[in-house]
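Regression check, adenosine-3',5'-cyclic-monophosphate case 150:
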Amino acid sequence: MSNKTLVILKPDCIQRGLTGEITARFEKKWFKLVASKMEVLSEEILKEHYAHIADKPFFPGLVSYLRSSPVIIQIRECTWIVPMVRQMIWVTNAAEAAPGTIRWDFALSIWANIIHASENEQEAGEEIVRFFWEGKSFDYKRCDEGLIYW
Ligand code: CMP
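Current build output:
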């Protein structure tokens, strides 16, 4: 079972200055940050990442939006991390998101939806390798690590 997932803070998150708000939610929940970088995503990596929707009419617009500013890409680690981050984010369309979730609280539309997170463990494994060289992340201890009850 994978205890790591990949999240991407999308351009609307960066441009609206919400990086701290979203990151704080993960930190408070004890989703450990084990890798992080900021970059403008290439068309090539977006075509690979979104290959399953590359034939959709909205795809060119989606690529433009995702390249309209840098994004922040992180690997987060915790027991049950993949489903728990998905629960925090909720569904694609902000209008259908549950109150209190990231997309309900901050997203404005179906496409400008603040954040991406791996949908399942297989996807998490593939995405981590896609965005981080050899899937490399950091191994360190948080100061409160011994105090956590799983
Ligand atoms: P995400 O779930 O991270 O991955 C696919 C992305 O495509 C999704 O977020 C939205 O940003 C975008 N998307 C999905 N459906 C639509 C749609 N109908 N119109 C525009 N963008 C969409």
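Comparison notes: The chain has one domain: 4-131. Residues 4-131 form a domain with the Alpha-Beta Plaits fold (CATH 3.30.70.141). No diff flagged against the previous build.
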